[in-house]
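Quick check before the chapter quiz. The format below is the same one you will see on the exam, so make sure you can read both the input and the output lines.
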Amino acid sequence: MRNLAIAVVDSFSEKPFSGNPAAVCLLDSPLMKEEMQAIAMEMNLSETAFVEKTKEEGSFSLRWFTPTLEIDLCGHATLAAAHRMYAAGWVKEGKGYSLSNLKWRTSGDQARELDLYGFSFNSNSGCSASGS
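Here is the expected output.
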């Protein structure tokens, strides 16, 4: 396994060691699901978010893992991922971005995908997000 930078971000708080912690891993290239699960198990937080750059400018893939399984959605880990993306320079002020990969199953067991979050950053209010 390659070396990866992983940050722990406390959502809903400006103070360290408070709020709702989530691990965030920014990926320049994909990891296998088994690798992401092993990292989440090692981090041992309620959720670990994995953000990957996509081919489309301003769009990112987001997946969430607990220590035991991949989950469909996690709000505080999504906010933590957006914060980490901004801190790492992956996103800039005044531009719009999207995080995708919310998946669900239809009655025919076909996987569907939805762009869930759109967000932008500005110096006055930080990150503003909207769901779709």
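If your answer matched, good. The two ends are 35 Å apart (CA to CA).
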